[in-house]
Specification:
Number of domains of chain A: 2
Structural class of chain B: mainly alpha
Helix content of chain A: 10-25%
CATH superfamily of the largest domain in chain B: MetI-like
Strand order of the largest sheet of chain A: 6-7-8-3-9-10
Order of helices and strands of chain B: HHHHHHHHHHHHEEH
CATH architecture of the largest domain in chain B: Orthogonal Bundle
Number of strands of chain B: 2
Strand content of chain B: under 5%
Strand order of the largest sheet of chain B: 1-2
Largest sheet of chain B: 2 strands, antiparallel
Oligomer: heterodimer
Distance between the termini of chain A: 36 Å
Number of domains of chain B: 2
Distance between the termini of chain B: 33 Å
Helix content of chain B: over 70%
Shape of chain B: globular
Strand content of chain A: 25-35%
Largest sheet of chain A: 6 strands, mixed
Number of strands of chain A: 20
CATH topology of the largest domain in chain A: Rossmann fold
Order of helices and strands of chain A: EEEHEEEHHHEHEHEEHHEEEEEEEEEE
CATH class of the largest domain in chain A: Alpha Beta
CATH superfamily of the largest domain in chain A: P-loop containing nucleotide triphosphate hydrolases
Number of helices of chain A: 8
Largest interface: A-B, 24 and 17 residues
Radius of gyration of chain B: 22 Å
């Protein structure tokens, strides 16, 4: 089983929504589409689901060319970001609807709906209407409808984006086991890098209508192919600054430089773009966080267990993200320390150099 | 508090006064109506109603009206549903202009169309039939129904359509079993307005009929008979004319508020 995209693209009224894309998605793990709003995730999902027609290319599901098949004939499931259920049907009928349409016997439908409702803790609400449920329960109903059918592919288009924090965590923990052992290709679109890391599997980074990088999630987090990939896979945004390699040293400015380590040792002299994730720029000095940056603090944010500070250094905007609560005074100069081992160096054409 | 309830009370009183007067008159004899001012009927009579409900020239007026109004409502809604779906779900060349043009049909007075309709229907043999009036009223009611339904349909997210397709619903099955129930209040409001406009429209209905399909409003204009003005009879006919509208309003009253909220009524 697999879902294969071959040079797939989509254009609407002369505007390219999805540039030529080739991907091979496998079952057994989550295939995450990660990108900002407007990166083309939903457009790509609609193409895979057969809700939009291709401008070019082929889609092959389980070895069968489904490029010209309508959504009805593809044996797939889809969960939207908004809680979409059939408003006049009870939760039971909602979950049962794909089975009823497929003409499955009533007795079997009851058993399968019950099973799906059990897994998603919807048993007490089967006779209710969707608008009598909470947002989390409504989205569970949509998920139940997606798993009750033995689909070849399941598309989840930011299914947790409209849920509140707690429900989102709860449901996210449950998602992998929900689809484990079903043999369906699971595609999960999200705009949050964190979610991609939590759900693991494979990730396709999307930006501006094309796939920037595709591979095992941890790999592409650790080794972004180019600057674009690094930018997509970072929240808050990754820090970027021009640096120069001079002999042994990496020179950020006349005052700030450090000795190249790791893969950076092999870099030839010249100009590079440095990128470092905000969680490797801390407000305290440690043996690893040894390179001192003095910056004007512009904005600080406190999100429970984490503090972030946006600061300006020589006209470049930087972000620091650290665990715990740190007292920053906005407008004053504060010392930050970066960990040179976690720096990425990109060549002028954008490709990862070290 | 006094003033607060006094103003609406007075307003309602003024609104209800002509209707009360009509109902009161319908229970009076024509002599009593002409003899002077009386707040209540001095001698109650059901003769006016009895006359209307037994005289075929009267009650066939009602039946004719109900037939062509029902025909018109069904045709208008059935034609408007797919049109409204197209306007709400698809973009095509000139869609906005076409949508606006539909509305402009409502701006022309009925009198403009009376002559061409009369000539055309006479020529093709549709004159004095129920379907003639029903079709003529479509000119106003289909654009109205499209306008109302488009508003309700656009309130249903496109994701509902997509979910149904992915679940395996064919388009007709989706439209009837999922989409229609989702916009049923819109269908109710559209049907109500079609019913009302067709029920109260007089000019076209009168011009396009003679005997066979003569509407009640046209029957009512023959009050000045050889016996003079039969005001009691006319009042009874008027009272009976209000009733169907009142019944329909009662059933769709909750939906109309929603229609207003969408700005489509």
């Amino acid at each position: 089983m697999s879902l294969e995209l071959k040079n797939v693209s989509k254009r609407v009224a002369g505007i390219t929504h999805v540039k030529e894309t080739s991907l091979t998605l496998q079952p057994g793990h989550f295939n995450v589409l990660l990108g900002e709003t407007g990166a083309g995730k939903t457009s790509l999902i609609k193409l895979m689901a057969g809700l939009d027609s291709l401008a070019s290319g082929q889609i092959i599901l389980n070895g069968k060319d489904v490029s010209r098949l309508s959504a009805q004939k593809r044996n797939i499931s889809l969960v939207h970001q908004f809680f979409v259920n059939y408003p006049h049907m009870s939760v039971f009928d909602n979950i049962a609807s794909p089975l009823k349409v497929a003409g499955i016997a009533k007795s079997e439908i009851e058993g399968r709906v019950e099973e799906a409702a059990n897994i998603l803790k919807l048993k007490p609400y089967l006779s209710r209407k969707p608008n009598e449920l909470s947002g989390g329960q409504q989205q569970r109903t949509a998920l139940a409808r997606a798993i009750v059918k033995e689909s070849d592919a399941v598309f989840l288009d930011e299914p947790l984006a409209n849920l509140d924090y707690k429900l989102r965590e709860e449901l996210r923990d449950q998602l992998p086991e929900l689809f484990a052992g079903r043999g369906a290709v699971v595609v999960y679109a999200t705009s949050e890098p964190e979610e991609a890391l939590l759900l693991g599997g494979q990730t396709a980074l999307m930006n501006d209508g094309h796939v920037v990088q595709f591979g095992p999630t941890a790999d592409i987090y650790r080794k972004p192919r180019d600057l674009e990939a690094a930018k997509v896979f970072s929240n808050p945004p990754i820090n970027v600054a021009p640096v120069e390699k001079r002999g042994e040293a990496i020179v950020l400015s006349e005052e700030i430089s450090w000795t190249a380590s790791g893969a950076a040792v092999g870099l030839s002299d010249g100009h590079y773009t440095l990128a470092i994730r905000p969680n490797h720029v801390l407000p305290v000095e440690t043996p690893a966080h040894s390179v001192r940056l003095d910056g004007h603090v512009l904005v600080t944010e406190l999100s429970g267990s984490e503090s972030s500070a946006h600061f300006d250094m020589d006209g470049h905007a930087w972000v620091s993200l650290s665990a715990g609560v740190h007292p920053y005074s906005v407008g004053e100069v504060h010392a930050f320390f970066l960990d040179p081992r976690h720096c990425f160096y990109f060549a002028p054409d954008g490709d990862l150099a070290a | 508090m006094r003033l607060k309830s006094l103003v609406p009370a007075l307003y309602i009183l003024f609104l209800m006064l002509p209707i009360y007067w009509l109902v009161a008159m319908s229970f009076k004899t024509t002599n009593e109506i002409l003899s002077g001012f009386s707040l209540f009927p001095q001698t109650w009579t059901f003769a006016n109603y009895r006359e209307i409900l037994t005289d075929p020239t009267w009650y066939w007026g009602y039946i004719n009206s109900i037939i062509y109004v029902s025909m018109n409502t069904v045709i208008s809604v059935l034609v408007a549903l797919p049109a409204a779906y197209a306007f709400s779900r698809y973009t095509f060349v000139g869609d906005k202009h076409l949508f606006f043009w539909l509305l402009t049909n409502r701006m022309a007075p009925a009198a403009v169309f009376a002559l061409p309709f009369f000539q055309l229907y006479s020529a093709v043999g549709l004159f004095d039939t129920h379907i003639a009036v029903a079709l003529a009223h479509c000119l106003f009611n289909i654009p109205l129904a499209v306008w109302i339904l488009e508003g309700f349909m656009s309130g249903v997210p496109k994701e509902l359509d997509e979910t149904a397709y992915v679940d395996g619903y064919s388009f007709p099955r989706f439209f009837v079993t999922i989409f229609l129930p989702a916009i049923k209040s819109g269908v109710g409001v559209a049907a109500f307005f079609c019913f009302m406009f067709s029920w109260v429209e007089l000019l076209l209905a009168k011009t396009l009929t003679a005997v066979e399909a003569k509407p009640i409003a046209a029957v009512m204009t023959r009050t000045a008979s050889s016996a003079g003005y039969e005001l009691g009879l006319l009042a009874a006919a008027g009272t009976l004319t209000i009733i169907p509208g009142a019944i329909v309003i009662y059933f769709v009253r909750n939906y109309i508020a929603k229609g207003f909220a969408l700005g489509r009524v």
